[in-house]
Amino acid sequence: MAQSINITELHLPQLEMLKNQLDQEVEFFSTSIAQLKVVQTKYVEAKDCLNMLNKSNEGKQLHSSTCGSRMPYAHTGVQPSWGS
């Protein structure tokens, strides 16, 4: 469990250390959120592409050129394990 600290009792160097730590954590979380948004966008694009392929190619054999630039699995034969 996290330790509680009364910041009014900290000296200036300790406050500066705390501020630096919090700045680093904010930067980490901001970067993580940005990365998650990129991954989310790629996931939505891939899911849309898969839905399009499923609807337009029922009963047809797929060719590697179909949606291959946005769906790296199209060339490998590997099926992604994403939920719908």
Automatic annotation (TrEMBL):
Molecular function (Gene Ontology), one example: unfolded protein binding
Cited InterPro entries: PFD_alpha_archaea, Prefoldin
Annotated stretches, region: Disordered: 59-84
Cellular component terms per the entry's GO annotation: cytoplasm; prefoldin complex
GO biological process terms held by the UniProt record: protein folding; RNA polymerase I assembly; RNA polymerase II core complex assembly; RNA polymerase III assembly
SUPFAM superfamilies cross-referenced by the UniProt entry: Prefoldin (SSF46579)
Protein name per UniProt: Prefoldin subunit 5
Lineage: Eukaryota, Metazoa, Chordata, Craniata, Vertebrata
